[in-house]
Amino acid sequence: MTTKTLRKIVKIDEEKCNGCGACIISCAEGALKIIDGKAKLISEKYCDGLGNCLVCPQDAITIEEREAEEFDESAVEKHLNAAGEKEEKLACGCPSASVQQFENQGGVTCPAAVLTEAMDKSRLGHWPVQLTLVPPTAPFLEDADVVLAADCVPFTYAGFHQDFLGDNVALLVACPKLDDFNAHQEKLNAILKQSGIKSLTVLHMEVPCCSGLVHMAKQAILASGNVVPFKDITISVRGELKSG
Length: 244
What we know:
Elements: E1 4-12, H1 22-26, E2 32-35, E3 38-41, E4 61-69, H2 73-93, E5 100-101, H3 115-119, E6 126-127, E7 145-150, H4 153-156, H5 160-164, E8 169-174, H6 181-194, E9 199-205, H7 212-224, E10 230-235, E11 241-243
Helix pairs in contact: 6-7
């Protein structure tokens, strides 16, 4: 039987939560996770009740006092280690994670007469692209202009390859709402520290939850001490360039 005691613990107002993931970055214990677009407390024993997650821009998180499982530091350690091992297995064991680098097939610009032909060729210059699978020391990251794009952007913005990919550009793809936000934050921190990238551009959708990708990038720059040129570009749900 689980023993419960009266103590302070987080309370999440799902009506206010927009799934931006800011709370997940601040929770060092990994007690929170985005599930179905909302922040959830995955286990009471992972929450220390100290309130680092109160950074929520929507004021969706408060601290309440109620009966809950006691905070278990050893359980937190096992939980974090298991999450780290899962990420390591993904990075090393998945066949699609094998790092490849190949010649770009497309040109930077193209005349209208050959536009259709040019759009048939990918301008991607490396593999993999998913942030989870990219090693921080991947050779294609060194001295590269990195584009960190939300999963939906390449499908929504018609000129994605022509406008944002090309020579010396490395692409990273992630979803701040559906993916493991905490693991993504740690990976991006490591990339900023170890890879020697030249600049960072974030491409995200206009929906509120997608702004978590911008927050992730800024946190990685601060955590790494690698203050690279940073650009924030928003794409509308209709595929229009809204800012940047």
